[in-house]
Each structure stands twice: as structure tokens, then as C-alpha cells.
Automatic annotation (TrEMBL):
<dbReference type="GO" id="GO:0046475">
    <property type="term" value="P:glycerophospholipid catabolic process"/>
</dbReference>
<feature type="transmembrane region" description="Helical">
    <location>
        <begin position="395"/>
        <end position="419"/>
    </location>
</feature>
<protein>
    <recommendedName>
        <fullName>PNPLA domain-containing protein</fullName>
    </recommendedName>
</protein>
<feature type="transmembrane region" description="Helical">
    <location>
        <begin position="219"/>
        <end position="242"/>
    </location>
</feature>
<feature type="transmembrane region" description="Helical">
    <location>
        <begin position="450"/>
        <end position="474"/>
    </location>
</feature>
<dbReference type="GO" id="GO:0004623">
    <property type="term" value="F:phospholipase A2 activity"/>
</dbReference>
<feature type="transmembrane region" description="Helical">
    <location>
        <begin position="569"/>
        <end position="588"/>
    </location>
</feature>
<keyword id="KW-1133">Transmembrane helix</keyword>
<keyword id="KW-0812">Transmembrane</keyword>
<feature type="transmembrane region" description="Helical">
    <location>
        <begin position="301"/>
        <end position="321"/>
    </location>
</feature>
<dbReference type="GO" id="GO:0005829">
    <property type="term" value="C:cytosol"/>
</dbReference>
<dbReference type="InterPro" id="IPR016035">
    <property type="entry name" value="Acyl_Trfase/lysoPLipase"/>
</dbReference>
<feature type="transmembrane region" description="Helical">
    <location>
        <begin position="520"/>
        <end position="548"/>
    </location>
</feature>
<keyword id="KW-0472">Membrane</keyword>
<feature type="transmembrane region" description="Helical">
    <location>
        <begin position="481"/>
        <end position="500"/>
    </location>
</feature>
<feature type="transmembrane region" description="Helical">
    <location>
        <begin position="362"/>
        <end position="383"/>
    </location>
</feature>
Amino acid sequence: MGGWKLWQRKPAETGAGKVVTPWQGIMAWLRGDPVSTDPAMTTADYTEMIKERAREVVRERRAILDRAGLQTPVPNASMGLACSGGGIRSATISLGIAQVLARKERLLDFDYCSTVSGGGYFGSFLGSLFLPDGVRGPETPGSQMKPPSDELSAKAHFAQSALTDQASLTARNIGTDAKPRWIRHPVRWLREHSRYLAPNGTSDLIAAAAYLIRNWIAMIYVLALPIALAAILLIAASFAMADYSEPTQKRLKDETSEVAKADAAAKGRIADMLYIEPKAPPPCDCVQKPKSEAGIILSPVWLLAAAAAFLGLSVGVSYWLTEYLSDRGSALRLALRKVTPGKSLDRARAWLDWLGNPTVRITLVILSAGAGTVAAGGLWLWLRRNANLWINWRGLDVLMGSAVALTITACIICILAAWQIGRSTITEIGKRDAFTPEIRRILTRWSSDWLTWVLIIAGVATVDTLGLTGFAWIRAASSDASFFAGIATLAAPLGAWIINKLPSWFKDGSGTLSRWIGRYLWTAALVAALALYSLLAVSIHIGIQYLMFGNQQWAIPGRFAPLSRFGDVSIGTVMLFLGGIVGVLFRFTGASQGFINLSSLHAIYASRLTRAYIGGSNMQRLALKDPPGTLTRSERSIMESDPQDQIPIHVYQQTRTAAPIHLINVTLNETRGADKSQMLERDRKGVPLVFAPEGVFMDTAKLVSQRTHFRWDDLKKYGVETLSLGQLCAISGAAASTGMGARTSLGGSLALSFANIRLGYWWRVGRMIQEADGINPRWKARALVWLLGTITYFYLAREMRGLYTRDTAYINISDGGHFENSGAYELLRRNVQTIVVADNGADPRFLFSDMENLVRKARIDLGMAVVVADREEVEALIGRDGAALFLNGSDEDWRARAAARSSDGLAASPKDAAFCLLLKVHQRPWNSKTGAFEVEEKLTGHIVWMKPRLFEGLPVDITGYATEHPSFPQESTGDQFFDEAQWESYRALGYSMMKQLLERSTHKEDILREINRSEGWNIVWPKG
């Protein structure tokens, strides 16, 4: 820890030349002061250093290509492939695209492959296909970080040939003719395990159901512990206020002494006040059933809610008292300055200046508030003593007493606000004449805080009231079968009516309920979540009462409740014992740091993705026991784990191969920034987090700093949790979770937490980010978490509220598509000249929303203008034949053209073969010599945006599948269970799209190289 390191060092210069002694280091660590001692280089210098490291990584890759005889004439780092989110659909289409590129010997033109979500499935398969066997598996001290060059070359040729093989090939010989070594074909493995979530059918679904149920029960157990502990405390409070003597009214009748009557009334006053008796039925001549024995039992927490409401009202009243803090003499002072100086005027000016001093104003407020309070209290007492002047109305007494109390409290609050400001910054604020506005700002914030507390306390009081009343009603109705018979009588027709209405409510997504939920999804989720949590809390509350009191009424005033339970054991002892057990369970459960991830859906999602996609390049998993032509059987099936599937991400990223450099994009959920405000991030609620060979980039734009970039050595230094490639592949595809970037909401987080639909991951980064930002947690928070052991509840509470920051030891990361779904954002940031985007996200209306999001963020964050090229520009760049494949420049809008379909649904249009969109990228290039951006904006690159759609010339099996499935190729991303026909249709569609692009233009397979040739668009692009 930073403070501990300072404590170990001798006094030295830290930060901006500040001497830190060991004691000062300890105190800085406890206070949470920044402790960075290393002078940081300038952002421009650091950016240039990272750029040079990126260029070095590309040169290392190109050297491997040269040794393998796979050279490419494309300039270094000028081309990148972006595979978007979209689940298994995106992975399968991207595979088809890569197969054509490999067959045309153009795949290795791309130095980068940037992936998001489902595109990461394919990207992980592609990168691991080139990875030598020696670096696979869990990291050990003998792990090879730099495999031999001949092994890298052999893997490069193997990967190329595996991608170019005919789809019908079932096995490959990776040995020699004399000593063959047969493996199942990697692409065949992917096809056969397209149902990666349940590859073995029903048995896998049962196993997944068992996993989900087990984790959900564990989640409910963890949530139940603090609820049970709170219920015990609330029940104890009600028990302490309960009146176990005879009913109050009966005591008043029996007592003869006035003192005794008053004493008897006082004994049950609180309990009587919190109890609402059941309403008696109206008198009639018929035979009446006895009145119900249970009324409504109010929680004593309502008294706290009333007190909180009173304080909130006092804060509101105190706002208006700030009128007397304003400088009344300012106008007069300005007028006197224009008058000829004189001795008396000098005294007047001095007096007015003294009156305008903030300290004097505070003093005057205190004196005036005190005088006003004394006057109000005196008037109230005088009226009470003079019966002849006192109006015979008890409410007036209460009203005036409340007014006096409100005035006193409001004055005290106003004084506290003034004192909070005045004690530390009174001089500076006085100079700026901002003293009074600052007090008003604080009072307004306090009003908001008190309103929040009133709502929270009222919610607790409501649950406690429902629990107390529910237990009393159940006990009262337990001997009355008609109570439950009545419920059953009402429930049966109500259930039948709901079942009858369900079809019309949903009705293929167009029903009333479907439309309402679609429009108010997160509001409905919030209401449902609050109802579910309340139901859980009330159920636990009633259960605790049953454990304490058994079948006997106890909270109704005047009802005798036994003072012992379980023989001679008192109720107080039972409460202490039960509270102790729950407290111990709460303490040890809360201290379990691994629960937050073990209880989520991440583990099962990551394991099955790993076995399906990274296992597809694992030679041990693909190895065949029997030669082809016989009954082939794999050494290791997808149902079994294999150590070779586990590839640590830092090993994967630091091992250079011939594969395109894999950039893995995830989202760091952040709903509250360092300024403790949501104003800046309230729309995005997340920042990009990229895992690359240079390290981890966080919230990085054009310039890189030590606060936004962490080297792999930094992660090792701070003991950051090691993630595997499969884990990161799952995190990048964690679409459904409590943190979803811009879609994060309180209702969604509460509902998804209760249902335990949590695919996101809490990544333990320790103090790495905190020290980079100069942040230390306060010592009080450290001590509280350590003493109470509440780390599990700390992070679960953040998930439930959708409250995420980067300044904690664990950060929440999820689907990269929650920030930007195409994968092109990081390529633009790296100034990649030509980007091919496989836009495979579900877009049934062809709105191109992912493209619009990229354009918007590129303009705001990167200073780049991404525009759609004109038809003439496309033809001039790639020729008329190639332009026919692009949506640019048609008579109608390119969105409408992309969405058009023929009447029979066999193709988008009988003659329209366009499926690409050419975009131009303009920016102000960075001049490394001057250390600044150039003034003139230039055309610096292009984006070829490929949108999956039906077009003329597709194979008959694809058009046939589209006829049976009208939503193809934009089926829901939620469908992750592809059968053979569905998987092959998407792969073949991606294959056909890229094949058309590389064959139907004038430049044939060189069309992308031609677009990348900067000389063709009058731009001088630096080489190498």
C-alpha cells in the first residue's frame, strides 16, 4: 500500500516537493491523501512511448510472418478487422468472413483484430489457433513466453490451412506420413458444438438448471441474513414497547384514583398509539360473527420516520432564514462611496464593512435566532398559563408547540450550515461574496438527503408494519378455516381469468402488456423488484416472529404474551441467542470475497465458452483415438475440462504470433465518477476497457496517461487478479447483468440482482487504479469493512443499486457492447487506416444504431469525423463493379435500401447485391515534432461497414432457410442454441459476403488493399 511504502522510506520529497516523514506517510494513508511519489512524465511523452511500444508489437508480428514466408505488402498497423457483438451469430458470420480472407491470402494483411462480445468468441478462437502449445495451460514458472520461431511458423501455416480447408473435411493430420497424428478439424469442432451452452442436450440443461437454482438459493440466503438481523432488532424494539397488562380501557374503568388512572394510561400509551383496532361491524338483527381479533400494528420505526420528516422540514424552513445572512449594507456602501469623504462617512463605511463580514453575519443569525426562539417559546407558555385567553382547542396547543420546535430546529440547522462553511473557508468565501449562496447550496443538499432518509425509513417501517400485522392476522386466522377458504375462493377465479387473458396481453409481442412492458421496462422492473424484496423481507420477518413466539399473539396491546419460550427461557434470551447466530453467519458470510463472482452466472458461461471456442484450437482436446474412416473418437470431449484450454490473458497478449493482434474490448461500469457526481457519466455509465499487448487501457482517448494505461508488469506488481482468455471472452459477452453501461438503471439492477441474472464480473485490481488516481479509502471505511466483514454485502449492495466506481478494490466489468458494439472504436483510437467492420448485432429494422453510436463517440472522444462516402467517391476509389456492392449513393436512403426485401422473402431485392457501406474518417493528425494536433482536418482512413443481409446470388440453402425463418439474418441475439442448419446458414452468409467483395470488383482480392492505398486518396500516410 502506498502509505505503508511511505512509512518504510526515510523522509523524502513527494508529489510537488512536499517532505513526507514516516508518521506523515501513515497519516496520509489513513486520511486517504494521494501518496504518489514518482514524478509523472507528460501526457504527450507517455502517449508517444505507448505508440512506440505498439509499433514494436506490430514489427514483432511482421518478423514472424517474414520467417514463415507469409509476408504482406500492406503498411504496418494500417489495417484492422472489427468483429462486433451479437452472440454466436456474430462469431459464426465472422468465421465465414475470415475463411474467405484466409483462402484469398488476405487475412494476415490485418495487423489488428478488435472484438466485442460474440465477436470475441471468434477472436479468441482465431488467436489461440495460432498460439503454440507450449504457452497454453495455467501459467507455471517454466511457461514459455517466447516460443521458438520454427514452432510459430508451423502454427501459422496450420492455422491458415485449417481456415482454408473445405468445410466437409472432418479431420487433419498434423503429424507426418510416417507418424501421423490425427485431430478433429477445428472448424468442424465449432460446427458440432454450436449449442455451446448445452452441447449434450437435456442433461446439460438439467445441469445448468441445477447451477442456476443453487446460486439463486445462495443469493437469497445471503440477502436473508441482513434482513433477518434487522427483523430481530425491529421485533425487539416493538417488544420493548409492548404492553402486556390488561387492556388500557379496562384498566381506566377499574381504577378509582386519578393518579392511578393517569399511570395506567401512560403504561400503554405508545403501544395504543401504534395499534389500530379492527373496525366493528354495524349493528343489525342478524347473527353476527365476532369481531376479528387482530388489527393493524404499526411499527415504532414510524416514529423515526416522523422525526426524520420533521428534521427535513426544519432544513427546508432554515433555507428561508438565510435571507438574514445577506449583506444588507452593500447598496448603501456603494452609495456612500460616491459621497465626499469625511470623518462621519468613514465611520459609516467602516461599520458597513464590519457588518458585511461573514463572521459578524453568523453571530447576528445566532443572536436573532436565539431571540426569536425565546420570544416564541415565551408566547406559547404565556398562552398556556392564561386559561382565559386560551382557545378551547387542543390542536392549537400542539400546533404552537410544533411551530416553536420547528423554529428552534431550523435556526440550529441554519447555524450549523453557516458554521460548516465559516470555520474553514470563511476568509476566501467572504472575499468572493459567496458566503450566503454556499450556505443555501448546503441546505438544499441537506433537504435532498433528508428526503432520501425519510423514504428509506418509511420503507423499513412499512415492511415492519406488514410483518407485525401479518403475523397477528395469521395467528388470528389460524383457527378460522373460512379465512383460508375465502382466499382460495378468490384465488381460483382470479387465476383462471389471468390465464385466459395472457394470450391477448402478450400476443406475439403486440399485446397490451407486451407493449406496456416494452415502453416502461425499467419502471416495471423497479416496481417488481421492490415488491419481491418486500415480500422476502415480510416473509422473513414473520418467520422470525414464529421462532420467537410460536403460535401466540404478542404485539397487540393488552394481549397477554408469554414472557418465556422453550420452557423457562425468556423471550429476551431467545432474541439474544437468535440474533447472535444470525450475526455470526452475517459476519462470516459477508467476509467471503469470492461469493460475488461464484454466485453469478459468469462461471458456467465462461467454462462453456472456453470449451467450445478455445477448445476448438486445443490439440489435446481435438486429438483422435481412432484414425479417419473408422469410428473416430476424441481424446477429450467437450463435457470434460482440459488444462490446455486455460490461457492466462497476460500470456496470450504478450506472446507474439502470426495472428492479427487481438484487442479485447469490455466495459468498465462507472455510474459515479471521481467527482462523486453522475452529471458527466449519466448517459454512458461506463468507459471502455481494452486488453492489448501493451497492457490494459482504461477510458483512453487520443492521449494516453499513467492513469489510463497499466502495463502487464503493473498488474503483476499490484497483485491484480489473473483472468484467462476464456473468462475475458465471457466478460466481453456479458450482455445481461446488473451493470450494462448506458442501460444501467436502479430498477434493472434491483430486479436482475434478485433473479441473480448477473453475467458481469467483479475484477480484483487492488489499489492499482486508486494509486494511479491518487485515491486512498478513508480509514473509517477500512476499519468498518474489516471489523464487520461486509465486503460481500458492500459489492452486492452496489450491484443492487447500480452504483459502480473505479476507486474500489474490485471493479465491475461487462459486455464491451455496453459502451461500443462494433469494435472499431479502439482501432480508430490507434489511427488504423482501413477498418473492416463485421456489424453482426441484431438490427432487424436496419437502423445502423451501432454505427451511429461509433460515429458519435468518435467525434466526441477522438475528435474524428466519420461520414458516409458519396457514390462518386466509392466508384473513384474502387471502380464501378465494386461500387455495386456498396449501399452508398442510391436514389433512396441507404437505410431503406438495406432493409428492403422482395415479396417472396428469398432475397433483399431481386437485383440488389449491396451489403457494404463505405465511411470516410477525417481528423486532425498528431504532429509528434510539434507535440500538437495539426490545424487542418484531413481524410485519414476508411471504414468498410459490412451489414449481414440477403442479396442476389446467395446459395440456395441460405435462401431456403431465410424463407422458413423470416427474421434471418437478424434473429434475436438471445438465441444462443444454433442447430446445424442455422449455424451453417450464418457461416455461409459471412463467407458469401466476403467472397463477393473479393471477387466482384475490378481489383478482385486486392480491393481492401486498394482502399488502404493512401496514395489513391491524395493522403501521405507515414509508413511503418
